[in-house]
Amino acid sequence: MTFRNLDEVVSGLTGWEEEFRRRHDRRCIFLTFYGVVSSEMRDRVGRGGFTDSDWVHRYAVAFANLYRRALEDYDGGRLDQVPTAWRLCFDAAKAGRGLVLQDLFLGVSAHVNNDLPFALSAVSIEPDRAARYRDHSAVNEVLGAVTERATQKRSEERRVGTECHDECRSR
Question: Can you give the pTM of this predicted structure?
Fold first, then answer.
């Protein structure tokens, strides 16, 4: 299912996060962070917290749909359709041999480096590039503002990944 708005994005990410955590699938690590970011984006868009909140809304939804497509193709066995960055990220998380931060950063890297240009292309940065740049920079501020909240949420979870936090401290 294609996300149509940020409510659907937050709901979808939350559902996957819960399912992956239940299955002890470490892909939930990236989803914890992405869910917190998306929830904050939804709230800020709703408050009109950007120069063009409608554009930011379309941008965030397009961005999330790129992740959704990669995840659904991966889980559906359509590996030839999964961008290499995502395949490597998902494979590493499923193998479960890395640190929690490695799983998180592989997800962030795949999403930003692979998906961001396509999301921006889908929503266009024209006609007012300066306004789009200001809003894009404001999105980066959201990332900085929620990092501690996402880290805290991840630390408080006592399901999958807890043993990894303990392991991280000893490495």
Answer: 0.86
